[in-house]
């Protein structure tokens, strides 16, 4: 698949600098998705989402953050547009976490350690 001239805009909520850097590169190279902003905490993410309601098509949210959780960030995505997607990418994708995230409106939940390829496929499909 050739990259489009207009990459998908993503908002990345991840508190690990190393994981952020790796995800930004992988999302750009594999999924034609450009990270336009990052946040490390629930409050920072929620504020950015309120201030930039139309500046993203994909929110990628870690579950456990520097302060707060991804559940609160998902609540902040509740009023998103029909073409905006919110996904959770976490090391804690057990049955209960998946159910909570989906109940709060997540479009998908992926485990960082075992489902990274599926996550990148989702990103690529969302940007197509």
Tell me the helix content: 40-55%
End-to-end Cα distance = 9 Å
Residue stretches low in confidence (pLDDT < 50, at least 5 long) are none
Q: State the secondary-structure class.
A: alpha/beta
Count the DSSP helices: 5
Query: CATH class, please?
Result: Alpha Beta
Rg, rounded, reads: 13 Å
Average pLDDT metric:
93
Q: Tally the structural domains.
A: 1
Beta-strand level of the residues, as a percent range? 15-25%
Structure in words:
Strands 2-1-3-4-5 form a 5-stranded parallel β-sheet, sandwiched between helices. The longest helix has 15 residues. Helices cover 41% and strands 21% of the residues. The chain contains 5 helices and 5 strands. The mean pLDDT is 93. The protein is globular and about 30 Å long. Helix 1 crosses helix 5 and helix 2 packs parallel to helix 3. Strand 4, helix 4 and strand 5 form a beta-alpha-beta unit. The N and C termini lie close together (9 Å). The chain has a single domain, classed as Response regulator (Rossmann fold), CATH 3.40.50. The protein is α/β, with parallel strands linked by helices and 128 residues long.
């Amino acid at each position: 698949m050739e990259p489009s001239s207009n990459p998908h805009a993503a908002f990345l909520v991840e508190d690990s600098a190393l994981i952020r850097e790796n995800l930004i590169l992988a999302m750009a190279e594999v999924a034609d998705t450009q990270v336009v902003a990052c946040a490390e905490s629930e409050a920072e993410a929620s504020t950015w989402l309120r201030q930039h309601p139309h500046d993203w098509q994909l929110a990628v949210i870690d579950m456990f953050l520097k302060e707060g959780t991804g559940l609160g960030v998902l609540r902040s995505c509740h009023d998103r547009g029909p073409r905006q997607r919110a996904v959770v990418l976490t090391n804690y994708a057990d049955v209960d976490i998946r159910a909570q995230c989906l109940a709060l409106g997540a479009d998908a939940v992926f485990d960082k350690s075992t489902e990274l390829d599926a996550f990148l496929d989702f990103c690529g499909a969302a940007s197509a």
